[in-house]
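Because discrete structure vocabularies remain unfamiliar, it helps to consider an illustrative case, giving the amino acid sequence and backbone structure tokens:
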Amino acid sequence: MKIGWGKEIKQGKTLSDNQIVSLLLKKRGVKNPVEFLNPVHPKQIRLKDFSPFYEKKLQFCFKLLEEIKEKGEMIIVYSDYDADGITGAAILWETLHFLGFNVMPYVPHRKHEGYGFSKKGIDAIKKQYDPRLMISVDHGITAAEKITYAKKLGISVIVTDHHLKPDMLPKDAFAVFHIPQLSGSAVAYFFAKEIFIRFYKKDSLSHKMLETYFQTDYLALATIGTIADMVPLIGPSRNIAWHGLQAFPFVKRYGLKHILREAGIAGRKITPYEIGFMIAPRINAVGRLEHAMDALRLLCTTQEKKAYELASHIGNTNRERQDLVEQSLKEAKKMVESIGKIIPKLIILVSDHWNEGIIGLVASKITEQYGRPTIVMTQVDGFFKGSARSIPSFHITDFLRDQKKYLVDVGGHKQAAGFTIENARVKEFIKVAQKKADKLISKKDLERKIDVDFKLPLSRLSVSLVEKIQTLEPFGVGNPRPVFYSEGTLVDAKIIGKMKNHLKLFVADLDKKRLPMEFVAFSSADQFFSLKKGEKMKLRYTVEVSTWQDKTSITGKIIHFDQLGEKV
């Protein structure tokens, strides 16, 4: 994979700390630095701020909810089975429950019902609950046909979603709240907050508890959903994540407590890393391999023993998921290697036995390794289910929608999508899709680019600069951690890590005016024996401040390094 520079970089040698931070904000398109660095609390954000039409829609919804509450009719919160959907369902279901509504959550089984509304799911709900209303969480915008079906059965549907709009919107929905710049859980958060404000009673203890939850528990849950779904951390999603991460220490619910315990991060400061790599995968694992209702039960239970048991079970399920991904990924890599030297610009891999719940993870890892959009398909109940992941320059959902004549259904985002296809159409679809992708994707699109923000001598780095950079947190999609480029001299190196697969490098500035700085290069131990003390190196890296035994220091995390061989 070719390494490119990415965007134009700045020379940071002569700039002050504040100038560097100011340029980083400008590069990220921040027009209001004060608001970015001190985001408004989500409690001050209303649905009408996203669209002036939502105020009128809300009034219709409130009227329907008042009627439902008065008659004691049933409401179903129908969510997606991933971390974004489950956290959103917890927020909305609890809000309606504590406000005195007759409400039940419903999470479809991935294998038996599939994503979103299905006739099978709607029929089951009608038979068991006969509800007046269903409210979607993290799905529904592409389900026009299913919503019409529900309406014919006498069930009204309110859609809360953030996925890309299809050509045909659900015209038979009672109301649609579609906010693409938020996660599904965040849309549910703001919708639930509007319901809470409308039905709030000052003399109710449960209502007062809800008021606290919207500033702590629900904000933390919406943050999990936002980061898990890789929503850009800009605009209102930054407001959610910035305040939500700060809310974690105040969350007392047993479910989150025991997820943190099981993940081995209890007591640790929660950052996007802990959510993206420790918390969300555990919530997602249940929906991938079993029934995600257990994840929802875990988040909502008021019994600590139950929370302990469910968290332990979910941890075991996550380990099973990791094993399945590892096995399937080995097979997938062999398939790619068997293609030959010229790998297609769009990789498509097909199996008749991979678990449907993990094909998206396999696609993601293949895309990461080979730098190409990847579609992974597996056979499920007479059809093939597909999951796709893409590179930044290639809109995979739009691409798949252009091939919709081959597909039963399709939905997703710019860099991730899912679809269903009939067995008989798979071969033709692969042929056509790869041919079209070959024309649409350029060689430049396939170059791996490292977007370096500043070129700095190592001696320019300081604790004060890094601490100022950390005011831009939380970092993530849409607000990446700043990347620096420096040249230096290798002083020492050693292999580290439980599996002995990482490197720790000690690199001095070229002028050797300061002590060597520590860098960690993950999964790079295979380069250890080619390293030579005293040789010149080029580093692209991120920086963090860490404190150990009252000593504060800077650590660099290497993204890529070049050995120049020459000694300085």
Q: What stands out?
A: The mean pLDDT is 94. The chain has three domains: 3-35+450-567, 42-201, 340-448. The two ends are 29 Å apart (CA to CA).
